[in-house]
Write a structure and sequence with these properties.
Pfam families: Ras. The protein is 29% helix and 24% strand. The protein has 182 residues and is α/β, with parallel strands linked by helices. The structure holds guanosine-5'-triphosphate (GTP) and magnesium ion.
Length: 182
């Protein structure tokens, strides 16, 4: 299929969430189809790009991976400027990472210069659903969906960066909501 003549769109996506929830792993699985058990904390922020077809249109996702660790939180407003979507990630096995979603969500909106905060597109990922066959889960899907509903119907996906479960679907949704204002 020749898609070279079509208009290209660059979409900026910011990934936020507590340290260790799997932000880097999700991106590595999505872009490189790779997973590593080893934890290497992200310092500062870095991006990867991936081209993807959304409803017959070629878009480039520029996905910014950020550091969850407190001492690296100094990215600031300049970094978030021009974001088209914010992906929030928590670990379904660690309740605290779910509780802090409010902070990540509110901080992001505070730092962005978005004209209409209520309409800004977020997507929530509940990661590590593979762990212990789901037996060590601390946050139910119902609870996560209730939080999403309370925050203006945020799309929700349960994922495993390790097994690649739902990762492509989640980022396709990200690309769709990110391009909705184009
Ligand atoms: P920071 O960079 O500190 O913010 O952490 P992060 O959110 O980028 O987490 P990272 O992707 O580095 O993953 C942390 C640890 O969890 C690593 O040891 C990963 O191998 C592991 N991990 C990530 N995703 C999954 C998953 O879906 N399942 C399992 N079992 N382990 C995962
Ligand atoms: Mg990381």
């Amino acid at each position: 299929m020749d898609i070279s003549h079509r208009k290209r769109t660059l979409l900026k996506v910011i990934v936020l969430g507590d340290s260790g929830v799997g932000k880097t792993s999700l991106m590595n699985q999505y872009v490189y189809k790779k997973f590593s058990q080893q934890y290497k904390a992200t310092i500062g922020a870095d991006f990867v790009t991936k081209e993807i077809l959304v409803d017959d249109k070629l878009v480039t996702l520029q996905i910014w991976d950020t550091a969850g660790q407190e001492r690296f939180h100094s990215l600031g407003a300049a970094f978030y400027r021009g974001a088209d979507c914010c992906v929030l990630v928590y670990d379904v096995n660690i309740h605290k990472t779910f509780d802090t979603l409010n902070n990540w969500h509110d901080d992001f909106l505070k730092q962005t210069d978005t004209e209409n905060p209520d309409a800004f597109p977020f997507v929530l990922l509940g990661n590590k659903v593979d762990v212990d066959g789901g037996n060590s889960r601390r946050v139910t899907e119902k609870k996560a969906r209730e939080w999403c509903a309370s925050r203006g119907n945020i799309p929700y996906f349960e994922t495993s960066a390790k097994e690649g479960y739902n990762v492509d679907d989640a980022f396709l949704c990200v690309a769709k909501v990110a391009s909705q204002n184009e």
